[in-house]
Amino acid sequence: MLMLWMPKKSSWCLLALAVVLTSLFAGGHQQDVVLAKDMKFKLHSRDLMPLVGFGTYQVRGADLIKDVLDKSFAAGYRLVDSAAVYGNEKEIGIALKELLPKHNLTRKDIFITTKLSPDDQGEKAYDALEKSLKNLDCEYIDLYLIHWPGKHGVNASKEENSVARDLSWQHMVKGVKNGLVRNIGVSNYNVRHMKELLGNNHGIKPAVNQVEWHPHYHQPELLELCKKEGVLLQAYSSLGGSDNRELLDNAEVKTIAGKLGKTPAQVLLRWALQQNIAIIPKARSQKHIEENIDLNFTIPEEDMKTLSSFSQKKYAWDPDTIA
Ligand SMILES: NC(=O)c1ccc[n+]([C@@H]2O[C@H](COP(=O)([O-])OP(=O)(O)OC[C@H]3O[C@@H](n4cnc5c(N)ncnc54)[C@H](OP(=O)(O)O)[C@@H]3O)[C@@H](O)[C@H]2O)c1
Ligand SMILES: *[C@@H]1O[C@H](CO)[C@@H](O)[C@H](O)[C@H]1NC(C)=O
Ligand SMILES: *[C@@H]1O[C@H](CO)[C@@H](O)[C@H](O)[C@H]1NC(C)=O
Ligand SMILES: *[C@@H]1O[C@H](CO)[C@@H](O)[C@H](O)[C@H]1NC(C)=O
Q1: Cα-based distances in Å from 213 to 71, 96, 147, 209, 270
Q2: Whole-model pTM above 0.85?
Q3: What 3-state class would DSSP assign to 87?
Q4: Which of 82, 106, 131, 183 pairs as cysteine with 207 (C-beta 3.0–4.6 A)?
């Protein structure tokens, strides 16, 4: 139809037509849902952090790491979540050398998180950060987290834990100043630990708090505090963790999944993402890796409410025990 009034051989008109068509599609309903792989959060540093990442707990060995990262980059993941205690930083570093060029990516296109071991909490924190950077063998780490509010080997009820994590934070602030890491944050911090850290005020606020978070365990008060302080809450064990099918087999999760034509895993991940909570699912098979980032759908409000009203129980370690 538009072609009818268009004079032939006029490239100017072709350009105008292209502009009209582009704006028609851009304004259309198709653009309403941002793809999960493109969802990002602006951290205090102004760095953009992908909301969907790839978890690597218990994913060890050079071949397995290379295989899952290859599949995850192909599927669109751009964030890799590691930790000193996962024992896979070196293998990730080696894999990146080969996989970045293979996927036409450079270092700045991906986001690498790793974590301070509870063994190195306190005075050893700076050396531990340097060691992780050396293991990963890249110019900088995007995000370094205090893995756990306690110090390994110290009685959980002791004040020494609080002193140690505060010292860790000061070393991590130095790590940012010296360019080893771009953003620093915490993991497994409860409201009390968060308030303590914010109150100590060492010049840099935590960028992220990575915590256990799924329909059977979520903490509205912690989410509220993080939002107020501009701290991104990042969920772990969204699917219930390894070797635990309780959430994946849950009847209500399955009903909602069936209704929406999605898998239970996709519903569990979308439930978090739809609340602007970041996710880092772990998977080994190509099918799971692909479906865990294929989250372009909306869970209706009533189903969100159902998922948010499950009985509460904790699967992973409990930071409330740490002074
Ligand atoms: N900061 C912390 O203290 C902490 C603690 C725990 C975890 N994390 C981080 O969070 C990441 C994720 O948590 P997680 O590893 O505990 O567990 P998760 O992501 O909740 O679940 C992983 C399990 O679900 C299976 N799975 C993955 N995709 C699936 C799908 N689409 N359908 C059915 N099953 C699926 C996986 O099996 P397959 O591998 O066989 O596919 C694996 O056994 C970790 O890898 C780690 O990076 C951090
Ligand atoms: C995202 O999902 C919506 C709703 O189903 C659909 O209209 C849109 O085309 C999808 N976008 C992409 C890029 O797949
Ligand atoms: C690689 O990325 C560059 C820059 O984004 C782009 O110009 C080029 O076409 C890409 N090449 C391939 C093979 O995808
Ligand atoms: C930790 O300290 C508490 C309080 O001092 C004490 O009751 C408990 O036995 C200690 N636990 C261990 C494992 O030492």
Answers
A1: 25, 29, 15, 11, 12
A2: yes
A3: coil
A4: 183
Atom index in ligand 1 nearest the CA of residue 317 equals 3
State pLDDT tens for residues 32-56. Answer: 568 999 999 999 999 999 999 999 9
User: Where in the chain are the domains?
Assistant: 42-244+273-296
Burial 85-115 (b: 16+ CB within 10 A, else e): bbebbebbbbbbeebbeeeeeeeeebbbbbb
Residues 213, 272 contacting (CB under 8 angstroms): yes
Query: H or E segment at 91?
Result: helix 89-102
* 102 Cβ below 6 A of ligand 1: no
Q: Are 50 and 39 in contact (CB under 8 A)?
A: yes
The closest alpha carbon to 209, from 152, 46, 225, belongs to 225
Q: Which CATH architecture has domain 42-244+273-296?
A: Alpha-Beta Barrel (3.20)
Instruction: Give me ligand 3 centre to Cα 72, in Å.
Output: 18
3-state secondary structure of 51: coil
